[in-house]
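Input structure tokens:
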């Protein structure tokens, strides 16, 4: 055996360290361990966050660019303004910004935030209550204002000293003769019909909606109103109405000018607690479509309703309607058709649905792809119409959005079916936000309690420019990567949804950003005071630049320009560190131009500290990047063994040369060579399990496996290469025949076992999991002897070869690991492996005799023995010397297995007691099982005593009785000896009961527990449950312990 002892424990963890020989001599590897290379170990702690969206929150956590309307806020929220005009109550954003107040005024502003008009001054509109609804005409010249007591006024903005139209409410509690809002009903929805200035639709808080048409006559302005939806209070109180009529209101109403042919049909959408209705106003008001509230609506966070129209566009002829109840948003295309008699029909099509978790209180279109949803908890969700997914969620709590409770009193008695509990429950209505949130041309306006804000979507180019100008180049490039990969919602950032178009657009900017960022950062080095901070930032920038190079399909020009920059500023080490990390993390093999790669190799091959990273790079690159002659020459000169193994096996399809290199290294007396020789074992493991060494990537491995098996299990020396090659000897030809392997059977197998037996059998144990070893494969018409041999290899064949060599193995350690290997695999694959019973027993006996102090070896032996016992048919005939060895070497698991199978409870108890004494950290379950077993044996003995006939004095009965007493005494002696350990299992409770029933004389041992008052008290507490059956001295002792505890 080699004079270099193997280090099974650290073999995997230190395979690529410079001096593994110092570690490899400490212990042996467990057969269940899996080989790892530096690729596995280094990659375990690495992961790239770029391009997977994990950086989204830090780079673009708010895709909405918020602007405070400071001038408007200062005018409306000042103390003077609040006193004179009242607090803001209603917001409109359109061609102008209009704000209604609590005193009935309306203040209008342009988009420079200049106050353009104060509407209502000196008119009776100020006596009509707070402004509760606003609407702007289609041409932006007229404004409609709804008030809290039911009045509606229209104003011409160019001359707003007096109103144009006044629509008065009807007196309450009087007979209804014409249609109109009832006095005191708050007008909460308002809109102009089409392009007309004298036609309006309105809705109030009691659920009534009207269309109003004003005409000018000789007698003045005449307003005619037509009811669209709802019932008057008198109708609700009528005896003709059904008794179970549910309370209702108008959650939302919005009209849209939409032309069918040459006619504007006037679309109106309304939503109530139970129904959505679509109404056309031309040629006469008519309800065209109704639909009920979806069953999936949840009312856990309050019942709400809202809707929003999006006009038809050049690419889409039909307008879109988004409406929602509580957490369910539905979007439909509304198609209108006109018949020959000018009648109109509406047909909703292509419905899409989104189900959220919270009630939605506002729906607003930002563009034809994105909706802004505001929840009752004041979170903004950006919903993509195409995908019906939310890409962004923003907290709006800092905006302090104004909201009003319009509906709770009206819907106080409303009860609806809850879809979750399937029970009728009272409804809690959400507050209304329609007066505080408005949208116009992609901007979202919000009225807060302290300020007005407007938000607009930051498109991708604006965001990149802002980030670059802020000086955060790393985040700018990361953002560009995410845009390129489509991590962000294309609709939100205004990028093309087509992948090719999106990538082409971003690619115009990204390379220039990368080069400019690196160049500028290098140039500011001399003026930077904190060089350490600069270095850290430069490392991060380098990493993200290389990530970007990888993401955009690794164009040569980016990498070459970067490398030249780092070379120019003497930072090639930083470049090498980062590119090796990036390349090693890839799932594919990237291409680097040979010119760049050759310069990297020449620079770093002379630095031993970089050898491992250089090997990572070599094994991770596309073959076209590699100068093979250069790598082979440098690999041999600088001991880049992993690279050599990789090139031979994966690039040149030569699976034998790694073994030739192993034999060469194994002959050396140099410690580094000896350590490098150990890499043959993970190479075997990886190859036989279909993985590329050392990267671990899977590959089609039939040929590789065949050649490895052919070499290892060949009966004699072979020549390599097969055509015209030299004989691969175990040692130099000048050495003895015994050393060079000429006269050995299976010379390569013996050498691999002798050099490091634990590592070899660990690799073979892993290879045995391959299902291809189940049966012999057909050789087909192959003429390659290695392929033919590989197809003939089975588990049985390998076991047979190993058993043939068994007598030749003189090293005890190798024999031990062979036994462990057979013991672990024979039971596992018993349907594929046949072993004689005597071979199984011999293996069992040798493992039982193992006296190793290494815990991993002992664990392997114990597992192997237990596994063999599970398939050994003569468990009751196991020789006493084997049992003795198992006992002396403290292999408790197999001992318990044997005694449990024999139903030898007494010896099982003795074994468990030894285990309890020697392994006090065993789980409590083991201890409780032991107490149950003791109780069971005592009971069994007692039962036999009871059935013994008192009158029978025969010698057989006398002998039986004597044997029972002998067992009882020995069991009692065992409890006496291990009293403390047994008491500790459950604090003495169970032991006290057993002793009380079967061996009360052992209660005296409670005094031995005096040094552990808690344990002593626990034991006595169990006795106290039957005070009348125990001596008074134990009662006194228990009371004394309790007193001491109380005093403390």
């Amino acid at each position: 055996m080699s004079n270099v002892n193997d280090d099974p424990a650290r073999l995997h963890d230190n395979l690529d360290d410079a001096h593994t020989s110092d570690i490899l001599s400490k212990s042996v590897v467990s057969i269940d361990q899996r080989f790892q290379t530096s690729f596995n170990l280094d990659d375990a702690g690495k992961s790239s966050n770029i391009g997977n969206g994990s950086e989204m929150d830090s780079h673009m956590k708010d895709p909405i660019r918020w602007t405070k309307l400071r001038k408007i806020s200062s005018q409306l929220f000042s103390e003077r303004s609040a006193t004179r005009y009242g607090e803001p109550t209603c917001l409109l954003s359109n061609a102008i910004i209009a704000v209604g107040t609590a005193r009935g005024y309306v203040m209008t502003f342009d988009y420079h935030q200049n106050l353009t008009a104060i509407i209502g001054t000196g008119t009776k509109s100020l006596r009509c209550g707070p402004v509760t609804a606003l609407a702007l005409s289609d041409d932006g010249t007229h404004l409609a204002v709804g008030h809290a007591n039911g009045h509606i006024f229209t104003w011409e903005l160019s001359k707003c000293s007096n109103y144009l139209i006044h629509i008065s409410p009807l007196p309450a509690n009087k007979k209804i003769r014409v249609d109109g809002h009832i006095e005191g009903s708050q007008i909460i929805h308002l809109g102009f019909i089409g392009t007309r200035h004298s036609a309006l639709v309105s809705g109030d808080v009691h659920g009534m909606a009207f269309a109003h048409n004003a005409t000018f006559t000789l007698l003045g302005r005449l307003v005619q109103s037509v009811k669209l939806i709802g019932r008057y209070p008198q109708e609700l109180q009528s005896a003709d109405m059904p008794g179970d009529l549910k309370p209702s209101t108008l959650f939302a109403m919005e009209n849209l000018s939409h032309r069918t042919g040459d006619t504007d049909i006037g679309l109106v959408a309304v939503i109530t607690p139970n129904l959505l209705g679509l109404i056309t106003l031309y040629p006469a008001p008519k309800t065209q479509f109704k639909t009920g509230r979806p069953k999936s609506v949840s009312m856990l966070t309050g019942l709400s309703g809202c809707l929003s129209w999006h006009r038809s566009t050049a690419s889409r002829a039909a307008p879109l309607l988004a409406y929602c109840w509580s957490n369910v948003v539905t979007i439909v295309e509304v198609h209108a058709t006109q018949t020959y008699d000018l009648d109109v029909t509406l047909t909703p099509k292509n419905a899409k649905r989104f189900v959220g978790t919270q009630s939605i209180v506002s729906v607003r279109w930002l563009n034809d792809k994105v909706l802004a949803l505001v929840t009752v908890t004041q979170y903004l969700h950006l919903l993509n119409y195409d995908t019906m997914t939310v890409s962004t969620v923003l907290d709006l709590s800092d905006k302090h959005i104004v909201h009003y409770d319009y509906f709770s009193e009206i819907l106080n008695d409303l009860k609806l079916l809850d879809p979750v509990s399937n029970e009728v429950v009272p409804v809690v209505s959400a507050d209304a936000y329609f007066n505080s949130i408005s949208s116009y041309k992609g901007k979202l306006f919000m009225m807060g309690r302290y300020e007005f804000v407007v938000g607009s979507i930051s498109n991708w180019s604006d965001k990149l420019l802002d980030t670059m100008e802020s000086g955060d180049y790393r985040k700018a490039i990361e953002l560009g990567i995410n845009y390129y990969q489509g991590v962000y919602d294309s609709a939100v950032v205004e990028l093309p949804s087509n992948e090719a178009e999106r990538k082409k657009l971003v690619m115009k900017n990204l390379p220039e950003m990368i080069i400019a960022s690196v160049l500028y950062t290098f140039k500011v080095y001399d003026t930077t005071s904190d060089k350490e901070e600069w270095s850290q930032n430069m490392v991060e920038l380098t990493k993200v630049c290389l990530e970007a190079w990888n993401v955009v399909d690794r164009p040569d020009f980016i990498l070459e320009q970067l490398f030249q920059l780092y070379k120019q500023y003497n930072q090639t080490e930083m470049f090498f560190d980062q590119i090796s990390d990036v390349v090693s993390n890839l799932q594919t093999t990237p291409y680097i131009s040979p010119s760049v790669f050759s310069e990297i190799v020449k620079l770093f091959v002379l630095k031993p500290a970089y050898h491992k990273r250089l090997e990572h790079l070599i094994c991770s690159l596309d073959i076209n990047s590699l100068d093979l002659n250069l790598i082979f020459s440098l690999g041999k000169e600088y001991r880049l063994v992993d690279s050599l193994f990789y090139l031979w096996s994966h690039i040149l399809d030569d699976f034998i040369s790694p073994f030739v290199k192993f034999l060469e290294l194994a002959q050396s007396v140099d410690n580094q060579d000896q350590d490098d020789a150990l890499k043959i074992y993970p190479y075997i493991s990886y190859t036989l399990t279909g993985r590329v060494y050392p990267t671990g990537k899977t590959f089609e491995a039939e040929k590789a496996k065949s050649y490895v098996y052919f070499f290892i299990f060949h009966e004699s020396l072979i020549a390599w290469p097969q055509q015209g090659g030299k004989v691969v000897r175990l040692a130099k030809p000048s050495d003895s025949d015994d050393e060079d392997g000429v006269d050995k059977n299976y010379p390569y197998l013996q050498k691999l076992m002798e050099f490091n037996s634990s590592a070899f059998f660990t690799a073979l144990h892993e290879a045995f999991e391959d299902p291809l070893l189940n049966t012999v494969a057909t050789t087909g018409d192959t003429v390659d002897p290695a392929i033919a041999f590989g197809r003939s290899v089975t588990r049985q064949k390998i076991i047979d070869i190993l058993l043939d060599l068994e007598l030749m193995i003189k090293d005890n350690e190798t024999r031990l690991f062979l036994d462990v290997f057979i013991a672990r695999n024979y039971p596992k694959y018993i349907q594929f492996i046949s072993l004689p019973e005597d071979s199984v027993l011999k293996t069992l006996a040798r493992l039982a005799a193992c006296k190793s102090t290494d815990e991993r070896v002992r664990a392997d032996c114990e597992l192997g023995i237990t596994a063999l016992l599970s398939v050994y048919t003569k468990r009751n005939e196991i020789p006493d010397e084997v049992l003795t060895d198992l006992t002396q070497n403290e292999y408790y698991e197999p001992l318990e297995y044997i005694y449990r199978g024999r139903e030898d409870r007494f010896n099982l108890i003795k074994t468990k007691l030894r285990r309890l004494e020697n392994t006090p950290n065993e789980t409590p379950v083991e201890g409780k099982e032991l107490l149950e077993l003791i109780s069971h044996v005592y009971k069994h003995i007692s039962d036999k005593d009871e059935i013994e006939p008192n009158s029978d004095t025969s010698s057989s009965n006398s002998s039986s009785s004597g044997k029972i007493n002998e067992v009882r005494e020995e069991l009692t002696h065992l409890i006496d000896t291990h009293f403390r350990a047994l008491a500790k299992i459950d604090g003495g409770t169970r032991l006290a009961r057993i002793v009380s029933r079967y061996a009360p004389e052992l209660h005296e041992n409670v005094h031995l527990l005096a040094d552990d008052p808690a344990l002593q008290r626990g034991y006595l507490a169990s006795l106290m449950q039957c005070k009348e059956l125990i001596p008074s001295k134990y009662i006194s002792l228990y009371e004394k312990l309790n007193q001491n505890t109380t005093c403390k």
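The first helix runs from residue 21 to 24. The radius of gyration is 44 Å.
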